[in-house]
Amino acid sequence: MSKYTAKYLEEKLTKELDAQYVQAIDESDGCGGKFSVTIVSEKFRGLKMLQKHRLVNSALVEELKEIHAFSQKSYTPEEWEKIQQEKQ
């Protein structure tokens, strides 16, 4: 069982990436071993998807040693706004 929670990941990513929006979902039935995360940050501007993922992974280097499954969606504010508009 991991000591990490969705709330912990949201707070850490918000702080480390100066994120405007972070949503972490524990998909592991509470054991903290599998997370899906959506992050919106200006720090992603000009980066390709792999670069964004590496930035997130570097912010969670210690946590990812214990989390066995981690998926992420990383967006700039403009990319996120476009996605939100498409949902309407």
Give a quick set of tags describing it.
BolA; 2 iron, 2 sulfur cluster binding; GMP Synthetase, Chain A, domain 3; alpha+beta; 23% strand; BolA-like_sf; BolA-like protein; 88 residues; BOL2; 3 helices
By CATH, the topology is GMP Synthetase, Chain A, domain 3
Distance between the termini: 38 Å
Strands across the major sheet, in which order?
Answer: 1-2-3
Q: In terms of structural class, how would the helical and strand content be classed? A: alpha+beta
**What is the CATH top level name?**
Alpha Beta
Number of domains as seen in the coordinates: 1
Question: Segments where pLDDT lies below 50 for 5+ residues?
Answer: none
Strand % is: 15-25%
Helix content range: 25-40%
Query: How many distinct beta strands?
Result: 3
CATH superfamily placement: BolA-like
Protein name: BolA-like protein
Pfam families: BolA
Family: Belongs to the BolA/IbaG family.
GO molecular function, one term: 2 iron, 2 sulfur cluster binding
How is the secondary structure organized here?
Blueprint (H helix, E strand, L loop, with lengths): L5 H12 L3 E6 L7 E7 L8 H11 L9 E7 L1 H11 L1
Parallel strand pairs: 2-3
Antiparallel strand pairs: 1-2
In short:
The chain has helices spanning 6-17, 49-59, 77-87, and strands at residues 21-26, 34-40, 69-75.
